[in-house]
Amino acid sequence: MDDSISCKCNWTSKYLVCLVIFLSGALWSSRDVLSNAAGATTKAPPVNSPAWTQVSPKPQTQPLPVFTINYPRIQVPFEITLWILLASFAKIGFNMYHKITIWIPESCLLISVGLVVGGIMYAVHGMPPAVLTSNVFFLYMLPPIVLDSSYFMPTRPFFENVGTVLWFAVVGTLWNSLGIGVSLYGVCQIEALGLKDINLQENLLFASIISAVDPVAVLAVFEDISINEQLYIVVFGECLFNDAVTVALYNILSFVATMPEVETVDVFLGMARFVVVGLGGLFFGFLFGFAAAFTTRFTAHVREIEPFFVFMFSYLAYLVAELFSLSSIMAIVTCALTMKYYVEENVAQRSCTTIRHVVKMLGTMSETLIFFFLGVATITTDHEWNWGYILFTLLFAFVWRALGVFVLTQIINPFRTIPFNFKDQFGLAYGGLRGAICFALVFLLPQNITCRNLFITATIVVILFTVFIQGISIRPLVECMKVRRTNRKLGTINVEIHKRLMEHTIAGIEDICGQWSHYYWKDKFKKFNDRVLRKILIRDNRAESSIVALYKKLELQNALELLGPAPSDLSAAPSLMDLQTKRNFPASDLRNMHELLSKNMYKIRQRTVEYTKKSALPNDSKVREILIRRHISIRHSFRVGSFPRTGVSKRHRFLSLPPRKNMESRSPPSRPSYTSENLLRAPIIFRHGTWIPVATLDLLILCSSIVLSAAELNNTIKQIIFRSRLFSTLFGFVRSASYTLPPGLASLDNAEGPGLEDKQSWKMTLHPCSGSRGTDLELEPLSATSSVSQLQRFSSRQERPLQNRYHQPERREHELGQQTSREPIAEGLWGQPQRDSWTAHRYSRSRDEHRPGGGNLPPSAPTGWAQEPLIQKGGGSQNHLNRRPHWRPHNPHGPQSPGQVD
Amino acid sequence: QTYLFQYTFAVTPAHIKRLYKRFQALDKGNKGYLSPQDFGSVKELATNPIGDRIIGAFFSQGQETVDFHSFVRILAHFRPLDKNRAKRPDSPEPINSRISKLRFAFQLYDQDNDGKISRDELLQVLRTMLEMQVTEEQLESIADRTIQEADLDGDNAISFDEFRKSLEKVNIEHKMSSRFLH
Known about the structure:
Chain A: Belongs to the monovalent cation:proton antiporter 1 (CPA1) transporter (TC 2.A.36) family. The complex is a heterodimer. Chain A is mainly alpha-helical.
């Protein structure tokens, strides 16, 4: 108990700690928590719990113990950790074998495991862990779940359907509560059931508990089969907001239920209270949402605590709403929706990722635990079974839900652009699973309710029935009924392409129409937002800042990603590469093409389904694409400007190799004139941390040596080789290119922290004439402080012998340390950034076309080329590399090009 | 004039009012017509891969301006089809019919207006839509495949009829309708 108190006093401790401590409270206090109101517990001063006092009574006379076990001291957090781990392991287990989770929702599996564990506990020591029996559930377990749902709420579809969502959430829940409550009351009047003692208020209270839908399982299914967006968002939003409604209703009714007599005034007071509770929650949500946004405005220098504010402010909103007995769920939902937009613009990209991860992690964990405990509690609580009541509850829960959906859709449909058809309504009605909220609420019932145990049993039965029967059957049913989906079926390629074109068209047309002004107030809000809110809440508010800021953030992110592990979308690479070779299209290729199309087409904003995965973090590939597009357009403009493209390219795989004719007829390499050498050696220092545009390469080609940060380097080095060939055609003395990498670069791949790309910089030198016909790209790490002096030293080095001397040891070192250095480099630089190399590849091709004689190349590589593939982790990317020989870096073990021999 | 709009484009006065507002908002400097630059100022269109083509669709051959009348006429293509509307036998094909929606899409491909989507035209569209991840070769094989699939008369191009046939099963009315214009 006192653990939870101390937590309340010190609210700044993290959610995770809260979660842990909550569970301690839950485990400890089966007895007296229920009677304690939240307010009462806060007053009690923190005292030592029995567990702590047990530690001390050791007699002083005993000698110093060499080895002691002090289990009671750690018992509570220890057991909680084990519980969490157990639940997590179960979750891992289900996901190991994917087919299980397709057909049986995860919540079912978790409950089953919970049932088993509960059974074991029941059999072993009879004393079950007291789980979820306190309102601590509402303080520590519910907030993460709600925060998770609301933070990842797809904003746009939500606001497009906000009316319907609220209609179903508020009116639908009231409808269900009233309907179920009244009809159960009617059933209670039947003599045979012997339930005369349950009065109307108690029935209504029970009905309010039972009417909260929590379709986690359904959402997962809907996501998976990509059901139409409207249905999805309504189910999503409904479950979020009707939690709020239910809790508010529950609070009112639990008060009413204990009243001896209910008068008409009380009914109106109850209604008024309902409104106050809702609006109050809304108010605090906005308040703390804006507070959070405003705070993150000033966190530029304390990046490490940025994510904290999101959690603390949303939790604060929740607690303060709870303090005033307002709708805390409403508060946290509003808070999350409000701050998300501003906070994500204020915080650093990394913090943003952290926020998302932690929100998702906490939410998932809470949900997992709740379902798990639900299973345990099913076994270990005292049940009171009454066939009649329970069966009628089941029946009414289903009937009123269905009726409610049908009636409410009839009313709302005329106001909707895309009305719900019968199948949608079925999905909506059948998706009304009950879950965590019901479970928690029913355990919160005051002890003086006569049929508390019956209510608990009935609730658990309803939950189990809906989760198991409806949860498992909804996928086959929805699939069988062919509920409208966001179509992702395999059509012909024509259909695929044309449909995408149409989507783009509609997106464009809606942009032209100004889609956000769909609702008048939305337009107004946007103006208000731009003029006032953004100025106050966002640190860096410039004109068009949303786009610029996004780009900036994305650029940074992209730069980081180049260093990080390969993004998932590259998994498509092998299949794409297979595609290339075959020119006639077997059936499997058709599939590949579809995959290629559907994966790679530029996704437009609004028509793509913006599901937030319940089970996974949303990926931001879409925004990344915008960024990539921008880079491409930069490249494009560059290309158009300096190397006007005249014709459509013909198919040449090895265009970037110089023509053999040229190679053979080339005169012995002559040293370039001193003037050009001087030009080539002119150093250019780039500011660290800026994205180096493609122009860098041209500078490099012109100037031959640049200082780069690691991220820039990583991006640039891939393009350098073929550019150097362009160089070769210009100057006619370079035949092949290779690069040497200092062993230090190997660490580049492992580096994820800010240190490397920010502080370390690299000197990149292009040696056009080292050796007879090779271009050497030389990389050397420069410390930030000494970069200038080093550079000067380098730039003054103009004698060839010196250069070679410089080269030799380095290369040997490279060969020796190849196990450590080459492998990661190969992977990091060549394996992953597929898209860049694609574009670069094309870029090189388009260039080469303008070279004299560039059109007819033998497809075989000249002798100087390293032929064996690089050591790669994935076979797929190896394949990928094999087909692009001009991309391969020089392999120290391969046949040496003449350039490196001397 | 409102009546004229209603009759020809099947748009309601409310639409016209709204669209007129938007038209004025786009029309920088109150010229009374829109130029391509006005469309270009729509930020979101810049990221739309076929944004240029969409803008181009508003301007008939050789013209540099579009007045409100034509603006509405183009947008009327994207009105959802009203099933309940009594079909007058004498009335012409409504502008938001399936076929005119299809034709609009077709013309986005067919930039040279020869009534056929040639391989090159298809390639251009594909290139803009799939630019960065795909090699030219892959693009070409996709284009080949697409044409192979749709081409019925063997002229290595997709005519409007072929285009229509290939999209027979697609719910064009839904796909090519904007909620805004409802």
